[in-house]
């Protein structure tokens, strides 16, 4: 029997996968009505994913990485602007 932590993490993983799938579908859909439907569905899943992420963090099921320092952020910005 799965424990609550496993269920929450599995659900979050599924939501993350669906967000990736929506991104691919949106970028490849020519029909504007279908594209808007995918965007709306993606937005709903993003909101759902963030709400579950917050719950998982509150319960101690998820420990986020340390925030990047301003220096690390500047390095990434510089690298991306040169690419």
Can you describe this structure in just a few lines?
The protein has 83 residues and is mainly alpha-helical. 78% of the residues lie in helices and 0% in strands.
Describe the protein in words.
The chain is mostly helical and 83 residues long. It has 3 helices and no strands. Helix 1 (4-28) runs antiparallel to helix 2. The longest helix has 27 residues, at 32-58. It is flat. The chain starts with a helix and ends with a helix.
Secondary-structure element string = HHH
Q: What is the helix fraction of residues, given as a range?
A: over 70%
Q: What count of helical segments does DSSP give?
A: 3
Which class best fits the helix and strand makeup? mainly alpha
Termini separation: 48 Å
Per the principal axes of the C-alpha atoms, what is the gross shape?
A: flat
Strand content: under 5%
What's the Cα radius of gyration? 17 Å
